[in-house]
Specification:
The protein is built from 3 helices and 6 strands. It is of the alpha+beta class. Strands 1, 2, 3, 4, 5 and 6 form a 6-stranded antiparallel sheet that branches.
């Protein structure tokens, strides 16, 4: 990322780095919307792990996370060969859900290409229902939470 370009949202954790490949392009030769979702999804799992929602925890406790709401704002096009950086954060914690924000940057220019907001729910996989976070995970999520105003 260029030294001059600062991410638009302060305090986010870098959760993904990658590259746009030709197979990621749509009929307009820009990265396809499905790939934006994929890259944001790959990043969010690193944010989850940072607060204790690790793959080991999920397997051991038979828990999962599910997106129940997502919104993506596309601001700049990404093309084959572009470098991607995703930064992720928590904006609100409830007993059973996390409100998230993620930004996707062009890794060369630092320009924000897209911003995603989402709500993810903590699930009991056996009961197929939302369930409260363990207190240690909820506390780490609250410690990491920062306000975000869409704009």
């Amino acid at each position: 990322m260029s030294q001059d370009a600062a991410p638009a949202l302060p305090g986010l954790l870098e959760t993904y780095r990658g590259t746009v490949y030709p197979r990621h392009l749509d009929h307009m030769d820009h990265m396809n919307v499905a790939v934006y979702v994929e890259k944001f999804d790959e990043g969010v799992w690193h944010l989850f792990a940072a607060i204790g929602l690790t793959p080991g925890y999920m397997r051991r406790e038979n828990r999962g996370m599910a997106a129940v709401e997502m919104n993506i704002r596309y601001m700049r096009e990404l093309c084959a060969g572009d470098l991607i950086v995703v930064r992720s954060g928590i904006t609100k914690v409830t007993g059973k859900s996390l409100h998230l924000v993620q930004e996707m940057l062009n890794g060369e220019t630092g320009e924000v290409a897209a911003v995603e907001t989402a709500v993810a729910v903590h699930l009991d996989r056996a009961a197929r229902r939302a369930t409260p976070f363990p207190e240690d995970i909820a506390a780490r999520a609250r410690d990491r939470a920062a306000p975000y105003a869409e704009g």
